[in-house]
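Bumping my old thread because nobody answered last time. Still need a sequence for this structure:
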């Protein structure tokens, strides 16, 4: 609930009699501040009472347009909380009419549509807001909103491409970091739409290692990559990228997204000791510190996950498992952090601890379709060890029934069962689909030596055998390339 003024933190919490006195003495702007403060604290009933008192104050009509617009905006938020989305949007329209030069009412329409579960409408209104005024886009649109829209629209290219293009053109950043994995996805959509000039502009901006790798291994981008003013490989880009991220963290040591980005790049560079050093200040963090910050909880969970991966790669197995268990405690709403829960379950299953892996998945809260596929892969690996053939078949069928990249774990489920012919067919199927080709080409590359859990190592051997088959080799060559890269990616 962004405001154009700072809230009065105490007045909104006064007892009713003192509040009435304070309201009578306060200016309309100050009364609004009290209402916003109550709303920001989650006391919507009190905010409604405060707003009603303000509406009854004849001075409001004599106040400037911005104060009256702010009153409509507060009323819009309260109306949205009451699940009356259309009325809330209409109130934002009134605020916009009073203050046509302000971006806030236009921008907030996108957030209201998102809150109502209308991602396509949210993307459309966001694009309209940026078309009207593209300035200061990073401050106006939070990363959480963009992440939600990108996820919700991942299978709706007609809505996703204009959104990404608008953000790209407005030079939107994710808390100061250029989200080039978003521009990589935009490049895919442009390539598939035959938009060569737009594609070249997008590719020219990309200079981060993993997006560069993805572009270099996919033939759709050959012409755009060749047209770059200065050729740049993923390996060549990595040192400068790490240095940039290190500088970001030194300047903003407590901004978790910047720390997480640095840790990811250090893992990619194979600098596991560097990961431990950079993550050490956060190793003893507790969920209580992030009690009212869901985004912070998710960030610290991933930060600790990266630390655990570095420990695992260094052979510090017990410490790695302990760190990942600690990362699990940073879930929201009193639940385990689902991504870390699934990652640990797969570690345990691949480490020949099937019963512990299955017990860990007794309750999976807030799981995505892709997460469900990872959970089913855990079941396949665990049931294989327990001799539960029916359980393996059920879990394998569940993954096979999913679509797009949500089905990615199916390949490893087949490999876990030694079904190499079926695995080869799955690789070829994924390569032939524009929706799954990028992920499959990424998985087909040869990277630096990364230690694996015992059963994961067995699957990797089988995967390399599948990738060397003539039919699979031809399928890769038809759409991309396969090569050796001095990188150590973390999935």
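Sorry it took so long. Here it is:
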């Amino acid at each position: 609930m962004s405001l154009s003024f700072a809230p009065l933190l105490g007045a909104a919490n006064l007892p009713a009699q003192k509040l009435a006195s304070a309201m009578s003495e306060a200016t309309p702007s100050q009364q609004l501040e009290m209402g916003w403060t109550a709303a920001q604290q989650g006391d919507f009933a009190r905010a409604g009472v405060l707003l009603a008192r303000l509406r009854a104050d004849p001075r409001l009509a004599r106040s400037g347009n911005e104060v009256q617009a702010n009153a409509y905006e507060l009323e819009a938020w309260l109306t949205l909380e009451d699940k009356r989305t259309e009325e809330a949007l209409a109130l934002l329209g009134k605020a916009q009419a009073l203050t046509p030069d302000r971006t806030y009412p236009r921008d907030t329409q996108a957030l209201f549509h998102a809150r109502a579960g209308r991602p396509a409408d949210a993307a459309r209104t966001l694009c309209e807001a940026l078309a009207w005024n593209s300035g200061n886009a990073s401050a106006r649109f939070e990363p959480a909103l963009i992440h939600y829209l990108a996820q919700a629209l991942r299978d709706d290219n007609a809505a996703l491409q204009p959104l990404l293009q608008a953000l790209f053109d407005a030079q939107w950043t994710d808390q100061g970091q250029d989200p080039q994995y978003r521009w990589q996805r935009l490049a895919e959509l442009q390539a598939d739409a035959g938009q060569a000039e737009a594609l070249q502009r997008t590719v020219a901006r990309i200079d981060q290692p993993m997006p560069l790798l993805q572009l270099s291994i996919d033939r759709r981008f050959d012409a755009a990559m060749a047209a770059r003013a200065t050729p740049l490989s993923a390996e060549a880009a990595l040192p400068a990228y790490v240095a940039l991220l290190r500088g970001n963290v030194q300047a903003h040591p407590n901004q978790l997204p910047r720390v997480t980005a640095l840790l990811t790049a250090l893992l990619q560079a194979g600098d596991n000791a560097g990961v431990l050093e950079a993550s050490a200040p956060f190793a003893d963090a507790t969920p209580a510190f992030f009690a009212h910050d869901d985004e912070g909880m998710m960030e610290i969970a991933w930060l600790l996950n990266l630390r655990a991966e570095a420990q695992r790669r260094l052979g510090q197995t017990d410490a790695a498992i302990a760190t990942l268990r600690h990362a699990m405690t940073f879930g929201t709403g009193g639940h385990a952090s689902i991504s870390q829960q699934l990652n640990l379950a797969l570690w345990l299953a691949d480490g020949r601890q099937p019963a512990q892996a299955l017990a860990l998945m007794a309750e999976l809260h807030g799981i995505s379709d892709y997460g469900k596929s990872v959970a089913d892969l855990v079941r396949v690996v665990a049931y294989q060890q327990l001799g539960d053939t029916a359980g393996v078949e059920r879990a394998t069928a569940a993954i096979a029934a999913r679509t797009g990249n949500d089905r990615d774990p199916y390949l490893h489920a087949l490999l876990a069962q030694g079904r190499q012919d079926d695995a080869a067919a799955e690789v070829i199927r994924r390569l032939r689909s524009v929706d799954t080709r990028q992920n499959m080409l990424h998985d087909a590359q040869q990277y630096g030596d990364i230690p694996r859990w015992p059963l994961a190592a067995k699957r990797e051997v089988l995967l390399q055998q599948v990738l060397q088959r003539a039919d699979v080799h031809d399928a890769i060559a038809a759409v991309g390339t396969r090569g050796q890269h001095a990188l150590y990616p973390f999935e």
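Residues 138 and 172 are 5 Å apart (CA to CA). Let me know if any region looks off to you.
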